[in-house]
Amino acid sequence: MIVELKGLEIFGYHGVYEQEQRDGQTFWFDVELAVGERGADDDLDEAVDYTEVAAAIRELSASRRFDLLEALAAATADELLSRFPADRVIVKVRKRPADLPVEWSAVTVVRP
Hints:
This protein is α+β, with helices and mostly antiparallel strands.
């Protein structure tokens, strides 16, 4: 089974540019955790709780500042693997860059 969160919106102060660090911006996280059969028996105690996954991402974003999306995505993947029983984690972090004419930019990290 794969537990997914798509479009988790978190405001943070990450980025290379001074205005990003000063004013902050919105980031969107897409997360997939391969959890085996956890939750198939309908036992919440054995399942991965989505609200706890979201809280872990919010805590990490609030407690550290990252210049690069790559570092934010990698730290998020590592944090999720350390806190939840998953065989694999995929984390995509997106933002709307002010200096590029694109809808969003993103980095995806896969951790086995």
